[in-house]
Amino acid sequence: MTDTPIRLLIVDDHNLFRQGLTRILEDYPQLNVVGQAADGGEALAMVDALQPDVVLMDLNMPVLSGPDATRRLSASHPATPVIILTVSERDADLFDAIKAGARGYLLKNVGMAELLDAVQRVHAGEAIIAPAMAGHLLNEFRKVAGPGSAETLPVEVDDLSEREVEVLRLVAQGLPNREIADALSLSEHTVKSHLANILAKLHLRSRAHAAAYAVQAGLVKDVQTGR
Questions:
Q1: Domains in the chain: how many in total?
Q2: DSSP label of 225
Q3: Are 227 and 117 in contact (CB under 8 A)?
Q4: Are 5 and 29 in contact (CB under 8 A)?
Q5: Residue 193 forms part of a structural domain
Q6: Helix (H, G, I), strand (E, B) or coil at 10
Q7: 3-state DSSP assignment of residue 216
Q8: Using CB atoms within 10 A as the burial measure, which of 10, 33, 167, 210 is most buried?
Q9: Whole-angstrom Cα distance, residue 149 to residue 101?
């Protein structure tokens, strides 16, 4: 993705986990752990001071939870993506994280190769959700949308331009911005602009949420995340 190490902030209330993960990541020159925080409140201050490229955030923490900290970071540092790294497989936790603005949701049983790949992809502008949780996102989205929403949801899609619908469909198929740009003969900058417009028009907070919306709207058959 890049020759410059990705600057990483690890946020978790378990000292052993933070320290252990930091030591393991020392073997990966693609990443550079620039700081550790024990709760969401510390994370906010450290993001201001350290300007990390990506934040790995635990879900349940004292003082300020992962979703609450993510929500504040999304507002104050929108260019700094957050990946939730947790043991929770609860639908509600996943959906809260996505609504808060998280760009990724991984389980702590993830392998190091998968974690490295996820950090690089999120840093590049993609959204990553653990395969075991991808179906949960769609299920939860359908609950929130409510009965009969399959008929009403596409009405809002009509607010999108034809090109925006094409971009949204490819996002839901799991394509990164670079591949979307190639498929539609656009620049990556134009793709990013279209995606920003899509999120604004549909009142969505993240790429992953947009993918779930596209499925619910019938634009694609299934949600694809990661590779």
A1: 2
A2: -
A3: yes
A4: yes
A5: yes
A6: strand
A7: helix
A8: 167
A9: 23
How is 198-214 classified by DSSP, letter by letter? HHHHHT--SHHHHHHHH
pLDDT at 143 over 70: no
Q: Tokens 């260019």: give the residue.
A: 79
- The closest alpha carbon to 8, from 45, 39, 41, 47, belongs to 47
Q: Does residue 221 sit within a domain?
A: no
Residue 180 lies in a domain: yes
Q: Please give the residue range of the domain that contains residue 67.
A: 6-124
Residue holding tokens 């979703």? 67
Which whole-number Å values give the CA distances from 134 to 31, 42, 105, 140, in the listed order?
26, 30, 9, 10
158 with 86, same domain? no
Q: Mean pLDDT across the stretch 10-30?
A: 95
Cβ contact 58:86 at 8 Å: yes
CB count within 10 Å of CB 76 equals: 11
pTM of the predicted model as reported, rounded to 2 decimal places:
0.66
Q: Give the whole-angstrom CA distance, residue 22 versus residue 8.
A: 10
Helix (H, G, I), strand (E, B) or coil at 30: coil
Residue of higher predicted confidence among 215 and 47: 47
The reply to whether 133 falls in a domain is no
